[in-house]
Amino acid sequence: MRIISGLDRKNHLSRRGLLAAAGGIAAGSLLLPRSARAVLRLDITQGTPQPIPIAIPEFMGGQGGGSDVGRLLTSVITNNLKRSGLFLPLDPASFIERVQAFDAAPRFQDWRVINAQALVVGRVSREGDGRFRTEFRLWDVFAGTQLYGQQYFTQPDQIRRIGHIISDAIYERITGDKGYFDTKIVYVSESGAKERRTKRLAIMDQDGANNRYLTSGDALVLTPRFNPSSQEITFMSYGRAEPQVLLMNVETGQREVIGEFPGMTFAPRFSPEGQRIIFSLQKEANSNIYVMDLRSRRTTRLTDTAAIDTSPSYSPDGRSIVFESDRGGAQQIFVMNADGSNQRRISFGQGRYSTPVWSPRGDVIAFTKQSPGSFAIGVMKTDGSGERILTEGFHNEGPTWAPNGRVLMFFRDPGGNAGPQLYTIDLTGYNEQRVPTPGYASDPAWSPLLS
Amino acid sequence: MVNFIRLFRGTRFAMIAAAMLVAACANNPNDPNAAGGSASTPGSAQDFVVNVGDRVFFDSDSSELSSQARATLDKQAQWLNQYSRYSFTIEGHADERGTREYNIALGARRAQATRDYLVSRGVAANRMRTISYGKERPVAVCNDISCWSQNRRAVTVLNAGGV
Fold first, then answer.
1. What's the Cα-to-Cα distance from B140 to each of A230, B44, B94, B95, B106, rounded to whole Å?
2. CB contact under 8 A, B136 and A282
3. Closest residue to B100, CB basis, from A284, A330, A398
């Protein structure tokens, strides 16, 4: 990556930088900021928190820096934090102080009176070699202390990513959880009449920017999924006589079939370390789950039923697999050990359960639930208890987790000749947001954090 | 729409048959020429679609062949045995009221049930292959059962011009 995350060595700017630079010696000086940090802390584990009022003045243009770049960074960060539902970016028209000096403390009183609890001050300048240098400080307004400070160097075409990285830093400092802004979404872009819909793989930033198509639309493509540890996706393609699971490098576009099988392969997903793929193989009327080691290309059968076993998803520790099966009549969710042993049903509610996806935190499983006239997205604990429906309607399908396990993305189809769109919703069931895409969109998959 | 169907139940089959014909024409615009014949030419692909019926329908989440479906497949088998120069593909489909991966497997199950029945009626297994499109290729588009029931189907598609 061309981004250099440089730690600022100025004592007053970055306590993390100080710690890294001076080792354990700096520990004493952390006392004040640490106690201050406890003041501004959003507990996102309980119900629906009140969003934190945050002021994000437009980033200053330093030496050779452009105001356009400052404006872009500010809008990326503001949009991210606002869409998270955990922050309330304040209207810049209400700002009293116009921050002029990046290296001086702000006039906290001016920010307190407009009830800003956090303040983000940034500066962007152009280096001699053409790179942008972006610096920012996160201030706790009521404690009157700096929570965090950092600087980054990047090529101009990566400047939006700096906005996402700064957003993640703010999110992490204030919620205590890792963010999810510096991530990508791979999805299926849809166009044309429903009877002959053209489907193309597309990839974009999580906020919908930088949309790019990965396939031409000649072949029907479905269910793309990210490799958690590389620039690779797996998906199903109808490009050959027999529909098959493929791998594609999203940087080079290079693709390959995972192997030759005596039937259709579908519903692929990577293991957490990215070295294996689990998928369904159809043989005659049945579909069973297999795992392939990508290094040896050795395939092992995990389920063996006269039924449809599909949509497998690993637990984050790689020890268990959740999947759906209609072996008992209708689709239900099952869990098994990674070697296929100890298969047990965990869903027992009214309706049909499908597309289970294990949370990156490991504690819950998201799913699609079908009831008469309704498709809902929900979560349950890994033993099947504690089911909660997050959103329900005519057709919601295919959840995917943000890497911090706090937000889910899925697609919603109004039916008829219209097409699906992507949405996000918090694990709490609140803060539903549409994700902008150039056209109809389905089958989203969230990448891990890029940095 | 439900009331509409109830009132006009008697005409529903005719409506579906008409829709099938239109869909078949729309899907295979070149087939009549490729097969070298028109609807009246016995042994043409058009003959198969119009006079035999190229598709059977399924209940929701089922791959069981109804008596009506078996009757259609009996006619298909007879025709396919008579015109043995054709190889063909059985396409399995599902309606939109299911999730993507499951519907892919369900379509495969329907294609397989159709295939097995034709084999049981003496059609050589090596003339046919199956493929599932899941819910990706509906023929009827609306938000009620009148469309979904037409989309839950297995279609016998002749390879143009015979083997």
1. 41, 25, 12, 9, 18
2. no
3. A398
CATH fold of A15-175, please? Rossmann fold (3.40.50)
Annotated domain spans of chain A? 15-175, 184-446
Q: Which residues contact A413 (CB under 8 A, 6 or more apart)?
A: A394, A395, A397, A419, A420, A442, B96
> Do the chains contact at A266 and B143, CB–CB below 8 Å?
no
> Residue A321 in 3-state DSSP?
strand
Considering the entire predicted model, what is its pTM? 0.87
Would you list which residues of chain B are within 8 Å, Cβ to Cβ, of chain A?
26, 61, 63, 96-102, 104-106, 108-109, 112-113, 129, 131-134, 136-139, 141-143
Partner-chain residue, chosen from A220, A287, A370, that has the shortest CB–CB distance to B136:
A220
- In sequence order, which residues have a C-beta less than 8 Å from that of residue A123 and are 6 or more positions away? A59, A60, A61, A62, A65, A70, A102, A134, A135, A136
pLDDT tens digits, A32-68: 343 344 467 777 666 667 899 999 999 998 766 667 8
Whether A264 and B131 lie within 8 Å, measured CB to CB: yes
Domain A184-446: give its CATH architecture. 6 Propeller (2.120)
Report ipTM (2 d.p.): 0.89
Q: Residue A241: its chain B contacts at CB < 8 A?
A: 129
pLDDT tens per residue across span A227-245: 998 889 999 999 988 999 9
How far apart CA A333 and CA A37 sit, in angstroms, is: 42
